[in-house]
Amino acid sequence: MAGKVGFVSLGCPKALVDSEQILSRLRAEGYQTAPAYQDADVVVVNTCGFITPAVEESLAAIGEALSENGKVIVTGCLGARPEVIRQAHPQVLEVTGPGEVDRVLRAVRQVVPADKNPFTALIPPQVKLTPRHYAYLKIAEGCNHRCSFCIIPRLRGLQDSRDAADILYEATRLVGTGTRELLVIAQDTSAYGMDIRHRESEYAGKKVRAHLVDLVNELAGLGAWLRLHYVYPYPHVRQLIPLMAEGKLLPYLDVPLQHASPKILRAMRRPGGAESHLETLREWRSIAPDLAIRSSFIVGFPGETEQDFELLLDFIAEARLDRVGSFTYSEVPGADANALPGAVPEEVKEERRARFMELQQRISLEKNRAKVGQTLEVIIDHYGELPGQVVGRSRYDAPGIDGLVYAETDGTVKMGDIIKVKVNRAEAYDLHGEMVGLVPWKPGVPVMGNIAIETIRV
Question: Which of 229-256 are b and which e, b meaning 16 or more Cβ less than 10 Å from the residue's Cβ?
Answer without folding.
Answer: bbbbbeeebeebbebbeeeebbbbbbbb
